[in-house]
Design brief:
The protein is an alpha+beta fold and about 750 residues long.
Length: about 750
């Protein structure tokens, strides 16, 4: 189960629920539950109670069930789900489905009594920087209900590097404010709230100001503080000295607040960059103005709209003496003095950036899932005593997991973001519910990885272009010049990992300029690219086959985005020579093979573009013969083995695995853990005879998440080959990794 249940009383025997029948005690009062279950494609239509007494599931209102979200599931000749609240009934349905999944329809008999420990079990999605399609937003709600999260905070406005502004709501008071590349209508806001209620999820809006306000200052440049001009963002900060700025936000809140049923409203108030003001007196005055800004909008929303205000912490770093009113709820992210806050009477939510921040594609933050599962609870805001609350602290509401799209409208796709976030949701969901069901994270993921992705009716975790092994292939050989192209007819413009893309080409001319091989709006592969990289020592120019991924603010193409991810492999395609280039995309790794031999692997996650081969404009395409193309949704690799906490408990693990015939490379990939691992005595064996020795010691972990060992060509056809290695934990026993074999 995820999250694990509070109490389980076992009984003898098991109940076969492979054929799911269900009934409700009162269809009218349970119509929301009926609508959800009938929409999921697993339950079918509700039947009469008489048909569920033996081998079915019956839902019933029962008074006296502990907790506002508590429920009881009794498994005997049939299953009885009881609760006194809608949330409890719905959570009981999730528990039944998860039991069916985990026990393959044969449920152990017994009684579950369950309720959460924490009131707030929240997820935040940053849609301000990166628009999330409305139907995909529903999938996040489905995932939340599956893992018993109960609040979704939607971060509705923000800005990214490259001066990209985003505001994701229709606006009638400020026509033109809503982002043209995606926003939600008032009707959709109504619809998503009604939809979320069915999954036990409350939608809490966030309009972030006076920082993160580029959408507002682009719309009204006169509202920007002229002295706070941050590189990469511009004048993205409201002038809080201005009455006009407050009136602008008041009018916006008057439009937005009535759209949302929640009694809580988040007003942001983070990262107002006072340090860019050089004059100390002005900084001090502005710091006090910032504190007054919080209380002004707390009073405004409370008195005019009946809302309880949430804010981000950080005002403590501002000059000034005014404290927020005590009825303000503080999302504590950048400050961790939780004991002082709760002692002063503030209600707080654990949103610590030390533990709860996912920033897809970024080299900073990130959630340490094993650390969360084994060492964290919502009581821990930081590792110092003042940041760890006592059990039962009444002013602690709960915790929140955050998905921040700092890299804007490009960067990771929402499919990649969801697949990155779901394992963290599983770990957080369990710790926020309050019961740990496994001894350690290694044991937890054995069932949680499969279970977390089994939420019914969720499509977001599946790749649009990756349902079949073969995504696309070239029907016949093509002669290409600098302005010729071939359209790739695929289900999506991009394919997320894992993927393999092979191109057999004969390059006939060294075109002056960069030579596009295949591209989309988000990514591009180049047959030849010359690119300058900024380093601490200056500028380094590289030329070769390349992969590019758009990042942050969009540009004319992927390479023209604000800060693209660029890989230039150390290989230049020769002229008048037929070669096969094979690009391989894996989780956090991209590799290039030429005629089956590994050129290089780089720890950067790329998508495979599926727009067009070549280019329509000179001199952007390539000149040569395109003999063949094959793009698949697999990597041509197979798992040989793994190492994990248990295997490394003694500090050293003797790894050994058979290598199938035809394998060209064996890679040791580091997946997770606080420490890396040292690989020593890596060698190939036939029987009891060593046939190849890799002389060095190798480190895998941190940024270096992969070590590849090529199999000599003379040994690739051998059927009884083994690889051996000694693996030592680097400063700890918590390394997790996979060993994979690759064949081309």
């Amino acid at each position: 189960m995820i999250p694990a249940v509070k109490e389980w009383t076992p009984a003898q025997g098991e109940l076969n629920l492979e054929k799911l029948k269900w009934s409700v005690a009162d269809r009218e009062s349970m119509k929301s539950l009926v609508a959800v279950l009938e929409s999921e494609g697993l339950w079918g239509k509700a039947v009469d109670k008489s048909q569920t007494a033996n081998g079915g599931v019956h839902f019933k209102w029962t008074k006296g069930i502990d907790g506002a979200e508590g429920y009881r599931v009794s498994i005997g000749d049939g299953v009885l789900v009881e609760a006194s609240s809608y949330a409890g009934l719905f959570y009981g349905s999730r528990t039944v489905l998860q039991l069916i999944h985990s026990y393959e329809g044969k449920l152990p008999k017994g009684v579950i009594n369950d309720q959460p420990k924490y009131q707030v079990r929240s997820l935040m999605l940053d849609v301000g920087r990166k628009h999330l399609e409305f139907e995909d937003l529903k999938d996040w709600v489905r995932l939340m209900g599956w893992m018993k999260f109960n609040q979704l905070q939607i971060h509705l406005n923000d800005n990214s590097w490259g001066r990209y502004p985003g505001y994701r709501l229709e606006s009638k008071v400020y026509p033109g404010l809503a982002s043209k590349d995606g926003h939600y209508t008032f009707q959709q806001i109504r619809e998503i709230q009604d939809f979320a209620k069915g999954y036990g999820v409350e939608i809490i809006p966030e309009i972030d100001s006076p920082g993160h306000s580029l959408a507002f200052t682009v719309y009204r440049p006169d509202l920007a503080h002229p002295g706070i001009d941050r590189e990469g963002f511009g004048l993205a900060y409201l002038d809080i000295r201005s009455e006009e700025s407050r009136r602008f936000i008041e009018k916006l809140f008057d439009e937005v607040a009535p759209l949302f049923d929640s009694k809580e409203f988040h007003i942001g108030t983070d990262e107002y960059r006072l340090n860019l003001i050089k004059d100390k007196k002005e900084r001090d005055a502005l710091g006090e103005d910032f504190r007054l800004y919080i209380n002004h909008f707390n009073k405004y929303l409370k008195e005019k709209h009946g809302k309880t205000v949430r804010i981000w912490s950080g005002y403590e770093h501002m000059p000034g003496t005014t404290e927020p009113e005590k009825d303000v709820i503080i999302d504590m992210w950048v400050t961790g003095d939780a004991k002082n806050k709760t002692k002063a009477g503030y209600k707080v939510i654990n949103s610590s950036h030390n533990f709860t921040y996912i920033v897809p594609g970024a080299p900073y933050y990130g959630v340490n899932n094993p650390g969360i599962y084994e060492n964290w609870t919502p009581l821990k805001f930081m590792n110092k005593p003042e940041g760890i609350l006592e059990e039962g602290e009444k002013n602690l509401l709960g915790a929140k997991l955050h998905v921040w799209n700092d890299f804007g409208p490009t960067g990771y796709t929402w499919n990649e973001i969801a697949r990155l976030s779901v394992p963290s949701m599983a770990a957080f969901g369990e710790k926020m519910w309050g019961v740990k069901g496994a001894e350690n994270y290694g044991e937890f993921v054995k069932y949680a990885d499969s279970l977390a992705g089994a939420a019914p009716a969720v499509k977001l975790l599946s790749r649009d272009a990756g349902e079949k092994d073969l995504v696309w292939s070239l029907e016949k050989q093509q002669e290409m010049i600098g302005n010729s192209s071939v359209t790739v007819d695929a289900a999506s413009q991009n394919l997320e990992y894992p993927w393999t893309a092979s191109f057999t080409v004969t390059r006939k001319n060294d075109i002056a300029g960069d030579e596009l091989l295949i591209s989309s709006g988000l990514a591009a592969f180049y047959l030849d690219l010359t690119h300058e990289f900024k380093t601490k020592q200056g500028v380094e120019t590289k030329r070769g086959v390349a992969c590019v991924r758009a990042n942050q603010a969009p540009g004319f193409d992927a390479l023209g985005s604000y800060r693209p991810d660029v890989i230039v492999f150390p290989y230049e395609v020769p002229l008048h020579q037929k070669v096969t280039l094979t690009f391989v995309g894996e989780h956090r790794k991209t590799s290039l093979y030429v005629d089956g031999k590994l050129v290089s692997s780089v720890n950067t996650q790329m998508v495979c573009p599926l727009g067009q081969i070549g280019a329509d404009q000179l001199p952007r395409g390539f000149h040569g013969t395109l003999h063949g193309v094959k793009i698949s949704s697999k990597t041509g690799s197979q798992k040989l083995g793994e190492w994990n906490t248990g295997l490394l408990r003694t500090g050293v693990y003797q790894f050994e695995a058979e290598i199938p015939a035809g394998v060209t490379n064996v890679s040791f990939g580091y997946q997770r853990g606080a420490h890396g691992a040292n690989l020593k005595q890596v060698s190939l064996w036939k029987g009891d005879k060593k046939v190849h020795d890799y002389k060095d010691s190798y480190f895998v972990g941190g940024k270096n998440r992969n070590q590849a060992f090529p199999v000599p060509e003379a040994l690739q056809t051998e059927s009884d080959l083994k690889i051996k290695a000694v693996i030592e934990g680097e400063g700890g026993n918590d390394s997790f990794g996979e060993v994979r074999a690759t064949s081309f």
